[in-house]
Amino acid sequence: MKHLLAALMLMTTPVLAEEGHDHDQPAHAFEIGGLEILHPWTNATDQDHALLFMDLHNAGTARVEILGARLDSGLEGRLVGFRMKDGEMGFESLPPIPVAPGRQLALEPDGLAIRFDGLQAVLEEGHHWEVILLTSAGELEIDVVIEAQDARQHGHAGHSH
Amino acid sequence: MRDSWDSLPVLAQDLIIAGALLLPLLVIGGILLRGFRPLPLVRALMWRFRWANLLFVLLIAVSTGMGIGLIAQERGLRTGSAQAAEKFDLVVTAPGSELTMMLAAVFLQPSAVPLLDGAAYDRIANHPQVQIAAPIAFGDSHDGAPVVGTIAEFVTYLSDGQIEGRIFARSGEAVVGAAIDLRIGDRFTPAHGRGSGADAEAHDGVGIEVVGRMARSGSPWDRAILIPVETVWEVHGLANGHPFEDGDRIGPPFTPELFPGTPAVIVHAGELWANYALRSEFTVAGETMAFFPGTVLADLYRVMGDVRQAMSVMSIVTQVLVAASVLLGLFILTRLFQRQLAMLRALGAPRRFVMAVVWGYGVTLLVAGTMLGLAFGYAAALVLSRIVTHRTDVLVTATITWAEVNLALGFLSAMSVLSLVPALVVLTRPVVENLRQ
Amino acid sequence: MALPLEIKDLEVRAGTRTLLKVGDLSAPAGALIGIRGPSGAGKSTFLHALSGLIEVRGRLCWGEVDLARLRPERRTAFRAHNMGLIFQDFLLFEELSPQANAGLSGLFRTRHDRAPIATRAAEGLARLGVPQGNRTVGSFSGGERQRVAIARALATDPGLLLADEPTASLDRRAADALIEDLTGLLRAGGKTLIAVSHDAHLLERLDRVLTIEDGKVTDDTGVQAA
Ligand SMILES: Nc1ncnc2c1ncn2[C@@H]1O[C@H](COP(=O)(O)OP(=O)(O)OP(=O)(O)O)[C@@H](O)[C@H]1O
Ligand SMILES: [Mg+2]
Question: Do C77 and B350 touch (CB under 8 A)?
Fold first, then answer.
């Protein structure tokens, strides 16, 4: 049974992976209160924690604070910042971060991220992950692309669009 | 189970791991040696094969020491460089290689880097989240040490306010790093350029007076001479960032049109989170680039980590080969004293005693080799750290932690189990056969 | 304590080959017995059988104990408590002092036995005239080495001494001196000796001499002493 499942997964994964990178898909961007969310992504993992990355741009007229994120299951993700302390890499919890009108904010590896601890399901490369972004302008459901386990940037990086 | 383990102090965890690693050795030793006194015979064998034994011990020591020294050194380098960069939250430069910019701005490695103009500096310095925006200016040196132009606020921040004497208050004054061979009150003329190409006469007539000395920080800034950025510009015949009406005032604000440019602005934000926002904001395509030295180092450490892993694999392979040759050596040597071991059996010694002698002999070699290996590893890390510290002024401290000790103990323990093999092989041959020879 | 020997239908085989066959043989406790015979006849094999180092069939009784029916580790323990062995080439630890060599058994015997073994080792060395001091036996002559080996064999106060060519590595003078001291010591202690030897000087000092040829006892002289 297990083998059958694995085989099925092997067969379906490449197809889904292609979909994930398909340019005909709806643009991988979301918007709330003037805040544009571009390319939300994460790394595939079978561990119980994950980091959520994205590019933010405030195209509106009011400042928007990023508070964190939540899953449908209720699991909360909090804002963290990458820090080097005594040669050890780690993350520190951060308070809500404001994005002023016209400003950008990048959540990226070795920088800012939203961290989930206590994940139940495995995040598989090429699949999508539903996350609710929490901002001062409201909650927004976003569709997160799951990139390779060792990806350092989202799949569209380098593409000019 | 997991929770109670996590709640233990780290030292207790390490000691428990060390104990668990040594357990096989201790159990075997306990079982084999109980009630026996094989030591005089082990000593006799140690002496009989002293040159071969010495070779074995050195082999084990070198292979163990290599692995340990490597790990210790890598960690020392990592901690040292991270600590040296700790004060540098965010660096803004012209676009280019983050690594080059970091080496230049944080580790003061001489390199030609493009400049940011007055407008760019102004934008950074006036950002509401920015507490300190320090321009820096390199290029000159004194006695091999870089002379770095910056602002007083940054010097205070860099040294945590620990300055003997005082901070520079006007152009022509200097605060020196802890490793600089100048005393307060000394005067010097900076040379143009750094290293062997430095031109000592270019700035003739310029006298700079040392007014303060920073406490040691373990970073390349210990070997730097800090002067007002205005002084650097003036010495090079450039505008000094201030209009004539300002008189002798130094430090920010600067007039953008009179700002000659800076290769890097070292930014300190009021709050931690702001650093991340500032990085996004100061990363402007084609204009400025902002990076966390910590992140650049993290990338570097990942590469270093990969190298370390590759080298660890090599050192483990070496160790396994050494282990194999030591075992083979034990086989050969036990053959040489097989008759004596048979004699012991003939005298009525139980099998366990004969095993205790052979195993004890092997384990004595292993323990001696491992202990010496730890010492070798520590010595190697110590020497390498000294060299790195001397060359780069990044304070690298060699430490042997439980991680290395446990690695060595694990090897020792595994080998001690394998040492049972020659001991058992000795017993497989009938006593009389060995007696006949 | 010395024990009487009683053998009945003893047989030692290696594979299908019979190395030794002894029908009936007995000896009282305290007898000094020599064994001679051509090379390859089975003399050492007989000694190994008597010391329980090899498996045998039939009956091989030292007192009440039948070695043929004991498991190897039990035979080893029996040997440790009742026998001393001497070899042609001594088999000493050259790195150790004569005292350490003579007291070797103490290393694997119980704590309780250690002190008496050390004491007897020292006494034996003194009685056999072994040079005292911190020299290791590596610098000893052949005669001196065999004395250390004898002291080692007797340190556990065994009733029985088994020797394989004890004088073969020694020159005449050293051999004669050793024979004198060894037989004196054994007779004084009432111990049994079974010695394989070609040395006529040794054999003539013994009570009885067996000749083994082709795995069989073909001659048994000196029975009168029994
Ligand atoms: N394990 C064995 N397998 C087969 N043959 C053996 C074995 N052990 C001994 N022999 C043979 O048994 C015979 C008797 O050997 P043993 O050593 O008892 O002779 P020995 O009388 O002591 O001779 P030597 O005077 O030369 O010492 C020899 O032919 C020897 O080759
Ligand atoms: Mg023989």
Answer: yes
Nearest CA to A32 out of A65, A5, A6, A8 is that of A65
- Clarify whether residues B260 and B398 are in a common domain: no
- Its domain, for residue B423, covers 9-83+300-436
Return d(Cα B392, Cα B84) in angstroms, integer: 11
Is C25 inside any structural domain? no
In chain A, residues 87-116 whose CB comes closer than 8 Å to chain B: 87-89, 92, 94-95, 97-99, 103-106, 110-112
Residue B372: its pLDDT value, please?
94
The more confidently predicted of residues A13 and B300 is: B300
Q: Which of B240, B262, B291 is the last residue of a domain?
A: B291
Which residues partner with A91 through β-bridges?
A: A82
C-alpha span between C207 and C181 (Å, rounded): 16
Nearest to B48 by CA among B419, B371, B370, B361: B361
Mean pLDDT of the residues in chain B: 89
The pLDDT score that the predictor gives to residue C226 is: 35
Q: Is C39 in the pocket of ligand 1 (CB under 6 A)?
A: yes
Predicted confidence band at A155 (pLDDT cuts at 50, 70, 90)?
confident
pTM over 0.80: no
Report the complex ipTM: 0.91
Please check whether residue B4 lies inside any domain of the structure: no
Number of domains in chain C: 1
Ligand 1 center–CA A155 separation, angstroms: 82
Q: Tell how far the Cα of C60 is from the centroid of ligand 1, in angstroms.
A: 19
Is A111 in Cβ contact with B292 (below 8 Å)?
yes
Token pair recorded at residue A52: 């959520």
Q: Which residue has the higher pLDDT, A33 or A116?
A: A116
Indicate yes or no: CB of A105 within 8 angstroms of CB of B280.
yes
Between helix B39-48 and helix B50-84 the angle, nearest 10°, is 90
For residues B207 and B74, membership in a common domain is answered with: no
Q: Which of C36, C43, C164, C212 to mutate to test the pocket of ligand 1 (most atoms within 8 A of CB)?
A: C43
Q: How far apart are CA B280 and CA B271, in angstroms?
A: 15
Of C51, C91, C100, the CB nearest to B343: C91
Please list, residue by residue across A108-124, b when 16 or more beta carbons sit within 10 angstroms of its beta carbon and e when fewer do.
bbbbbbbbbeebeeebb
The alpha carbon of B206 and the centre of ligand 1 are apart by a number of angstroms equal to 102
CATH T-level assignment (fold) for domain A30-147: Immunoglobulin-like (2.60.40)
Q: Which residues surround ligand 2, an ion (CB under 5 A)?
A: C 44
pLDDT at A27: 53
In which element (H, E) is residue B384 found?
helix B351-392
The packing angle between helices B293-336 and B420-428, to 10°, is 20
Residue A93 DSSP symbol: E
In this predicted structure, the answer to whether residue C57 has a pLDDT above a threshold of 50 is yes
Residues B235 and B374 in one domain: no
Nearest CA to ligand 1 atom 28: C40
Annotated domain spans of chain A: 30-147
pLDDT surpasses 50 at A12: no
Indicate the residue type of B131. Answer: Q
Following CA atoms C46, C48, C53, C59 in sequence, which dihedral angle do they give, to the nearest 10 degrees?
A: 20
pLDDT of residue A71: 92
Q: What is the pLDDT of residues B238-252, one digit of tens each?
A: 888 888 888 888 888
Distance from CA of B35 to the nearest CA of C (A): 7
How many CB atoms within 10 Å of residue C17?
8
Which residues, listed in sequence order, are joined to residue C30 by a DSSP beta bridge?
A: none
